[in-house]
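name: query_chain
kind: protein
chains: 1
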Amino acid sequence: MAWDEWEQLKADALARRQDGMRLDSAADAAGGSGTGSAPDLKMNHAGNKAAVKALREVIRPDTDKAGSHADDSSATAAQKFSGWATGSALKAAHAEWELQVKNLKGRLGQDQTALEKTHQDFRYTDLGSRAG
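structure:
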């Protein structure tokens, strides 16, 4: 490859990188908007409310049930195999399972709280904008 060809390839790559990414809503070179309308932030209140309800009434309770479903049988199996490597491995696996379920339940609770807070924040912002 000749030196001139290499320099041309580098220049082409640099030009592509500079022109390569632009947000859809960013103004283009002519000063117009990428989407053809003014940028706007909107909240799907019904969808947010449905997500919070699903987390509260379905997902979190079902996670509790599914997480504790195998507790008795796992404890019985670990006890039956006590003294064997299988027994201690079952006990360790069950302890890890309980930890993971606890972490998942905590995360679902955080998600529910965040969605509720987001709904409130947007509502107060909308009311403040209307009042202004």
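note: The chain has a mean pLDDT of 81.
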